[in-house]
Structure formats: C-alpha cells, structure tokens
Design a protein that fits this description.
By secondary structure, this protein is of the alpha+beta class. It has one domain. The protein contains 3 helices and 5 strands, in the order βαββαββα. It is globular.
Length: 107
C-alpha cells in the first residue's frame, strides 16, 4: 500500500523492512536532481536509506510503501547541500555506512 504525504509521526512509529516481493537486484537507491532547483529527489527500497529519509528533519517525504505494517520503500526530496560524493572510498561497503546519522546545523 502506498501512503502519499505521510504524517511524520506515522513514519517514526513504523518499522522498516526489506520488501519480500522484490529481488535484491531490484532494491535500489536513486538520487537525482537538476540545476534548476536546490532540492534533489531520493527514492529507495534499501532499508538503511529508508531509515535515513524518515529520520532526517530536512527530508520532505512524498510517499512510502507499506507491506504488512512495515515501510519497505520511500520517496522524498532533500536539500542538495546534504549530498556529497567522496574522493576516497570508505572502509566498509555496507549500506548502513553510506548514510550518516542525521545532523542539522543552524548555518
């Protein structure tokens, strides 16, 4: 079931799981944007990315997909300033290392 414009409180109270109906090769993180706006779009079926989207206060969640009460996918916009591509590889290739804990500064 897809929930459009979900209530943030609803998101905080739901667990995230992998979608049992999708193959691993179908579970992706997609990030895209244009030069015309200062926001980017992120869409994913990868649990660490879903958790990051739900937890980050600057994410504007457009929709989530829920199966058996668990969030299995999310689509949101984020400020472009949150995105950075590293020049050096990280030590770990795990998805939970790709998304840092949400922190927001006042600057």
């Amino acid at each position: 079931m897809r929930i459009n414009d979900p209530d943030p409180e609803l998101l905080q109270n739901r667990e995230v799981r992998e979608d049992p109906e999708m193959f691993p090769c179908e579970k992706e993180v997609r990030l895209y944007g244009s030069k015309e706006t200062d926001r980017m779009t992120i869409s994913t079926e990868v649990p660490p990315a879903i958790r990051w989207i739900i937890a980050h206060p600057l994410c504007e969640v457009d929709w989530v997909r829920v199966i058996d009460g668990y969030i299995v996918a999310a689509h949101a916009t984020i400020p472009r300033r949150l995105v950075s591509v590293k020049s050096e590889p990280r030590k770990s290739n795990h998805w939970n290392r790709v998304f840092s804990k949400p922190e927001v500064s006042d600057d």
